[in-house]
Amino acid sequence: MAPPREKATRTASVAGAVVPMVSARSAQGVPTEPSGPPEATRARARRSGRPGEKPRGRAPPSRAEDRAEGAAAPTREGEPPAAPGPPLPSSGSRRQGSVRATRERRPQPAPVEVPGPTESPGPLVPNPGPGLRETAPGAWKLRAVLEQLRLSRREISAAVEVVNRVVDHLLRKLQQGCESEFRGVGLLRTGSYYERVKVSAPNEFDVMFKLEVPRIELQEYANSGTHYFVKFKRNPKGNPLNQFLEGEILSASKMLSKFRAIIKEEIKNIEADTDVIVERKKKGSPAVTLLMRKPMEISVDITLALESKGSWPASTLNGLPINRWLGVKVRNDMRRRPFYLVPKHAREGSGFQEETWRLSFSHVEKDLLKNHGQAKTCCETDGVKCCRKDCLKLMKYLLEQLKKKFGKRKELTKFCSYHVKTAFFHVCTQDPYDSQWLSRDLELCFDKCVTYFLQCLRTEQLQHYFIPTVNLFTPDQIDKASKEFLSKQIEDQRNNGFPVFGAF
């Protein structure tokens, strides 16, 4: 791997820490010293708008979305301390430098993001500003990939019809059946399809069957931050969940077993034109997976979730760092929403602690992706289109294609789309402004996401977005060799123009 390019840097002291500051021209990959023949030097001077040269007229935008840019919003106070993950790298990667150095541009301002009084000191990341006027060379390829990844309306309609029919049948059975412990169950649609970031084909769906459990008490398991024992503060005789208690603890394994048995029995009563089976239980998985084989092959993960309308656990206090991105009010509103617990068991030695439940915020993740813009009109019909979700789709597809390419390699088995999505949320936090995600800057923004994910792999640091004390890339979660292998494959793809995308 070639050594990284040296950059001209200066340092600033923020809250007692010395932090590198990258110049605007260096961060954008623009040479700081003229080179080449005099004609090239004069051409660069005209493009850069240097003193003594007559500025060129500004070309009119080619699309409606190029007419407006999100103004940089003022920094809001009250942001929780940022997760101590790897810094968002400057956008001057080796590959980007050659792209940007050849692009005509106007002079770039060099504002920086300065942490507010309650934020932890972090890297000062240059704000790209409103200077990028042309589509980056190579962006056409990414747009072609995205076009191929668009789900067919006909396929979507057919898949959703089958899934809804099966899910609605099971939901009615649970709500009206004699098993009174599940009568209060409701439906919560989650996952990439409902987040509108599904790639390839509409062949995988995730749904939650939520069950409200009032007046519960959580006991954190082994300082994990994510896994808890569930107890009832008051347990009157008529509690229908009594049968699932192990002493005072609500047993996740018992409840999941009964839930699975009901579903397995009920699918026998589904119409004959839908061939559906329950797949074998995966060790440690909280979901009951259905495989539908007619009229098309579709996988549906149904997860039982306990719904609590109490305050979020203390481990989440500094999580969800969206104050500068979506606003303090949005964050407060989201934290007033219920949280969920799914029967995902904590690891205990070489096995699992089967009575534990894991926190889930998939409903909030769906809202973050649905309302992802700082401007409330972002990506709406009359608003400016950003490329946030496009970048996430490409990141998910990159991992998906690499796993297909190296299907028999064990190094990639533990990586999943949730790792990509978590890293993407952190990039959104560090680049909160809509002007930093303009649609025409797709290639630059995608490279920014790739670079951040590579930093996470190399430093073995990927903080949980809602529970910042939890690192998803610890050695006991994913071994170092696997992270090095994935890092090398992504680097090779980036250096060679992502040939794996040519397989779409």
Automatic annotation (TrEMBL):
<dbReference type="GO" id="GO:0005829">
    <property type="term" value="C:cytosol"/>
</dbReference>
<protein>
    <submittedName>
        <fullName>Cyclic GMP-AMP synthase isoform X1</fullName>
    </submittedName>
</protein>
<dbReference type="GO" id="GO:0042803">
    <property type="term" value="F:protein homodimerization activity"/>
</dbReference>
<feature type="region of interest" description="Disordered">
    <location>
        <begin position="1"/>
        <end position="135"/>
    </location>
</feature>
<dbReference type="GO" id="GO:0071360">
    <property type="term" value="P:cellular response to exogenous dsRNA"/>
</dbReference>
<dbReference type="GO" id="GO:0005524">
    <property type="term" value="F:ATP binding"/>
</dbReference>
<dbReference type="Pfam" id="PF03281">
    <property type="entry name" value="Mab-21"/>
</dbReference>
<dbReference type="GO" id="GO:0005525">
    <property type="term" value="F:GTP binding"/>
</dbReference>
<dbReference type="InterPro" id="IPR024810">
    <property type="entry name" value="MAB21L/cGLR"/>
</dbReference>
<dbReference type="GO" id="GO:0002230">
    <property type="term" value="P:positive regulation of defense response to virus by host"/>
</dbReference>
<dbReference type="InterPro" id="IPR046903">
    <property type="entry name" value="Mab-21-like_nuc_Trfase"/>
</dbReference>
<dbReference type="GO" id="GO:0008289">
    <property type="term" value="F:lipid binding"/>
</dbReference>
<feature type="domain" description="Mab-21-like nucleotidyltransferase">
    <location>
        <begin position="193"/>
        <end position="371"/>
    </location>
</feature>
<dbReference type="GO" id="GO:0140896">
    <property type="term" value="P:cGAS/STING signaling pathway"/>
</dbReference>
<comment type="similarity">
    <text>Belongs to the mab-21 family.</text>
</comment>
<dbReference type="GO" id="GO:0140693">
    <property type="term" value="F:molecular condensate scaffold activity"/>
</dbReference>
<dbReference type="GO" id="GO:0005634">
    <property type="term" value="C:nucleus"/>
</dbReference>
<dbReference type="GO" id="GO:0032481">
    <property type="term" value="P:positive regulation of type I interferon production"/>
</dbReference>
<dbReference type="InterPro" id="IPR046906">
    <property type="entry name" value="Mab-21_HhH/H2TH-like"/>
</dbReference>
<dbReference type="GO" id="GO:0046872">
    <property type="term" value="F:metal ion binding"/>
</dbReference>
<dbReference type="GO" id="GO:0038001">
    <property type="term" value="P:paracrine signaling"/>
</dbReference>
<dbReference type="GO" id="GO:0045087">
    <property type="term" value="P:innate immune response"/>
</dbReference>
<feature type="compositionally biased region" description="Pro residues">
    <location>
        <begin position="108"/>
        <end position="129"/>
    </location>
</feature>
<dbReference type="GO" id="GO:0005886">
    <property type="term" value="C:plasma membrane"/>
</dbReference>
<dbReference type="Pfam" id="PF20266">
    <property type="entry name" value="Mab-21_C"/>
</dbReference>
<dbReference type="GO" id="GO:0006281">
    <property type="term" value="P:DNA repair"/>
</dbReference>
<dbReference type="GO" id="GO:0003690">
    <property type="term" value="F:double-stranded DNA binding"/>
</dbReference>
<dbReference type="GO" id="GO:0031491">
    <property type="term" value="F:nucleosome binding"/>
</dbReference>
<dbReference type="GO" id="GO:0051607">
    <property type="term" value="P:defense response to virus"/>
</dbReference>
<dbReference type="GO" id="GO:2000042">
    <property type="term" value="P:negative regulation of double-strand break repair via homologous recombination"/>
</dbReference>
<dbReference type="GO" id="GO:0061501">
    <property type="term" value="F:2',3'-cyclic GMP-AMP synthase activity"/>
</dbReference>
<dbReference type="GO" id="GO:0035861">
    <property type="term" value="C:site of double-strand break"/>
</dbReference>
<feature type="domain" description="Mab-21-like HhH/H2TH-like">
    <location>
        <begin position="387"/>
        <end position="491"/>
    </location>
</feature>
